[in-house]
Amino acid sequence: MSVSVVGHSNPDTDSVTAAIAYANYLKATGTDAIACMQISADNLNPESKVVLEKFGLAAPQTMTDAAGKDVALVDFSDIGQAPANIGDANIVAIVDHHKIGDITTGSPIFFYAKPVGCTCTVLLEMYKNNNVELPKDIAAGMLCAILSDTVNFKSPTCTDADKAAVAELLRITGVTDQDALFMEMLKAKSSVAGVPIRDLVFRDYKDFDMNGKKVGIGQIELATLDQVADIRDDLYKTIKEVKAEDRHTVLFMLTDVVKEGTDLMVVSDDPAIIEGSFNGKIEGQSMWVDGMMSRKKQTVPPLQKAFGA
Ligand code: MG
Ligand code: MG
Ligand code: MG
Q: How far is the CA of 268 from the centre of ligand 1 (A)?
């Protein structure tokens, strides 16, 4: 029986390309293996679709049930992120870069994890250490995975090993413009074309109770604010409607991943409390907040403090 190599549920580019890269590695070292993912190719995220298409890689095969199968896990080791019936599978290997999850095995397995920014960084090391030939198209997929997981080296999870791996993969693939490749992926990931405005507002949205006041905060990540230039007024109108439903405040974070800041759209009963929270001035519909990238870490805490929550 061949080994099904699979990444986590709702797969990102690392989970997809690590499955391809590790399946190839296993085959090259004498173990029959198939790259898998827990969704159908149609439902793959737009960034990974672009990566596979650009470099001519076949999408991993769909696998949603692991019962009775030999499986290798990449980019996770949590039961909650595994295919159904993982408890009835024979796990033969795990390659990862996260904290160890709650999956256990009945017998010894190959387990290789490192505290680096991406599973493909770990896999490149395995290819090199064992002199396994790395095909160009797979190398390109791995390159994209590292750029994605490390946000082109901007993420605090990025290590020197990830940077060295990217340098090596650029050499192998002949890709010369790392930033352009990253931008192409980012634009695919953050595409708003054709998405209904209300869906966009609620795509990544949460309501918070701030000392009895209902405060809604939505976010979209963009390669450039130009991506929403044509729909800004419609976004603002929709946010006003959402605010009017029963909320004290609705904020919408238009986060520019390249400039590393957020154009914060504000509709509030008390705009001054928002300006005070982020030391800025609302001009028209929004205020620019330099450095604001994370709702959880940078937007919510100052608001909670200001609202006295
Ligand atoms: Mg991942
Ligand atoms: Mg990863
Ligand atoms: Mg990721």
A: 36
92 sits in which H/E element: strand 90-96
Say how many Å lie between the CA of residue 233 and the centre of ligand 2.
36
Distance between CA 254 and CA 47 in Å, rounded?
19
**Mean pLDDT within 127-156:** 95
Distance in angstroms (rounded) separating the CA atoms of residues 33 and 49: 22
Residue 72 has pLDDT above 90, yes or no: yes
Instruction: List C-alpha distances in Å: 263 to 271, 297, 304.
Output: 15, 16, 20
Does 3.10.310.20 match the CATH number of domain 197-307?
yes
Ligand minimally distant from the alpha carbon of residue 7: 1
- Give distance in angstroms: CA of 122 to centre of ligand 2: 10
Show me where the domains of the chain are located: 3-187, 197-307
Domain 3-187, second-level architecture: Alpha-Beta Complex (3.90)
The ligand minimizing its distance to the Cα of 120 is 2
Distance in angstroms (rounded) separating the CA atoms of residues 246 and 214: 8
Q: Which two tokens stand for residue 177?
A: 């413009």
**Distance, CA of 215 to CA of 202 (rounded, Å):** 14
Tell me the pTM: 0.81
